[in-house]
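Weekly modeling sync, notes
Attendees: S.R. (lead), two postdocs, one rotation student

Agenda item 3: backlog of single-chain predictions. S.R. asked that every request posted to the team notebook include the full sequence so nobody has to chase files. The rotation student volunteered to paste the first one in as an example of the format we agreed on. Action items at the bottom.

Example entry:
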Amino acid sequence: MPLYRIRRDVGPATQEDIDAASFRAIVCAPQFPGLKWIRSYWDPAAERIDCYYEAVGPEQLQRHAELSRIPCDEVSEVVPVLPETYVRG
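Predicted structure, as returned to the notebook:
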């Protein structure tokens, strides 16, 4: 399944705003087969969240965001680069 980064411009959000949006995203996810939330990083100073999802395609992520009532300002397919790929034990 492809991996995507979603940039979400959230404005001056509070922790409660982020919690509510996260809950809506989780509740709506089962309606989208193959969709899996991997993780997110919130940068309060930049007023944005970068979310990483496995998904069928960008359109699925945009529909999920609409249903969840969360921003979806940019979707890009990404390739993981993980330290364990380079470390030999």
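Discussion: group reviewed the output briefly. The chain has two helices and four strands.
Action items: rotation student to repeat for the remaining queue; S.R. to check formatting next week.
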